[in-house]
Amino acid sequence: MSARDDARDAGLLLRFALDHTVTPARNDTYSQLLDRYHADPNLRTSFEETAAGLGVRVLTADRTTGLVLIAEASSPLAVKDTSPWLRIRDAADRMVYGVALGGVAAWCYPNARAVREPGTRRVTAVDVDRLVREHAAAVEAGDIGLDEGLGPAWHQYSMRKQASETRSGQLRRYCTVWMCERVLEMLGAFGLLVPDKTVAPPRADLKVWRSTDRFRAHVAATGGPLAWQTIVQSHVSDRVLFGDDEEDG
C-alpha cells in the first residue's frame, strides 16, 4: 500500500467511525479496514494523525462497535448545539439536564464493574427520574455529601415537578420526566442508546431505550458526567438498581 492509499483508507475509515449506524459486522469494507487498522501500523498512524488534526481520538476499536471516537471541545466535529433535543431557557434548566444525563449513565452503569464489562440495560425516563430523586432526597436529608458546587443542581432537580400533564394527557415541558426523555432522545441520536421495542413503555409519550457498548466506552474513557460519579459513589444506586428485577442483556 502506498502512502496515498493509506491516506484514502484512513479517510474512509474515519467516515465509517463517524456514522454510528454502520458497524463492521454489517459492512464488509468497514470490517476489512478495521482489520487493517489493527494489523497495519501505516494505516493506523495515518488514521490517528488525521483524527488528531481534527481534534478527535479513539476510545475503543472492536468488532462489535467499530471505532468509537470522542471529540475535543474545540474540534469542528464536537457537538455544540443540543437545541434539537434539549430546550434550555436558563442556567437552572442546564443544571437539571446535567443531573439527568448523570442519572442515565448511573442507571446503565451503576458501578465501576458495569463500565468495564460488556452488557446492556433497559432505561426509561421514569427509571432515571426515580434514581435521581432518590439520590436528591438523600442529599436533602444530609445522608450524602456533595462536592462543592453540585448542591444547586440537585436542589433545582428536586424542586421541579416530576410529571405534570397537559389537558390532552401529554407530559408538560420542563417537568423532570419530560426532561429526562429529552436527554435519552439526544443520546439515542448519537447511537449511545437504541430504542427497545420488545417491552411496553411506561407511558404513550415515552420510549424504552437500551444502552450500547458505544455509550459504555464513552463513560469508561471519560469518567462519566460528574453527576454520574456522585450517584455511583453512594449506596442509593445499589438500593434502587439492584432491587430492580431488570437483568443485563
Q: Which regions contain 5 or more consecutive residues with pLDDT less than 50?
A: none
Portion in beta strands: 5-15%
Helix-residue proportion: 40-55%
SSE run: HHHEEHHEHHHEEHHH
The biggest sheet, with number of strands, parallel, antiparallel or mixed sense and barrel status, is: 3 strands, antiparallel
Question: Please, could you describe this protein's structure?
Answer:
The mean pLDDT is 88. It is built from eleven helices and five strands. The termini are far apart. It folds into two domains: 69 residues, no CATH class; 151 residues, no CATH class. It is 50% helix and 8% strand. The protein is mainly alpha-helical and 249 residues long. Strands 3-5-4 form a three-stranded antiparallel sheet. Strands 1-2 form a two-stranded antiparallel ribbon.
